[in-house]
Hints:
The chain contains 8 helices and 11 strands. By secondary structure, the chain is of the alpha/beta class. It has 2 domains: 4-127, Response regulator (Rossmann fold, 3-Layer(aba) Sandwich); 132-222, Winged helix-like DNA-binding domain superfamily/Winged helix DNA-binding domain (Arc Repressor Mutant, subunit A), CATH 1.10.10.10. The strands form 3 sheets. A 5-stranded parallel β-sheet has the order 2-1-3-4-5, sandwiched between helices. The protein is elongated.
Amino acid sequence: MKERILIIEDEIAMIRLLELELSYEGYEITIASDGLVGADIALNENFDLILLDLNLPGINGIEVCKRVRAVKQTPIIMLTARDTISDRVRGLDTGADDYVPKPFAIEELLARMRSLQRRLQLKETADVLYAKDLTLNMVSHYVSRSGQEIELSQREFELLRCLLANKNRLMNREALLNLVWGYSFEGETNVVDVYIRYIRMKVDEGFSEKLIHTVRGGGYILRD
């Protein structure tokens, strides 16, 4: 599946350049040339990265970043001709992950994107697991989806953690039972089905996009 990038930019030449180069690199591109429209798309769809201009019609990039960060942790790289220290600080303090001043070489942007992806992968394996708009912090045990906190029991937390750590991978009941309940557990394997139902009610109920899927005869998979 192609990685999705949302470009929120109002300069036609820059839009064409980014769309051409990033499509060539294999990304699926969505364009918004207005801050309000871009924020709405970012909040209602899932993207692997947002490239965000600072000076936009509607609302500026700082406000877009604030609105996205209030709900999602989608990676954001700011692109702007304003390259003062104060501009960089504002963007990063608002929640942007990186800042690339214009004009830039496309090779530099691609390198920054790869670097950001590596940092996020390290962060994910260290403390936080992600799938779409679902996050699970293994240190604080804080779980949320679309910015809404989800309260889980300890067993529910461990089961969800296991599914997230193995996202996009089919996990059969026996594997989940051993990983979450332990090899010494002597109860029935249907306890897994019961707890999957519990966490589905908390993680997927009320959302049009379901993350936890049943594979008949196989087990369960959490799809990113």
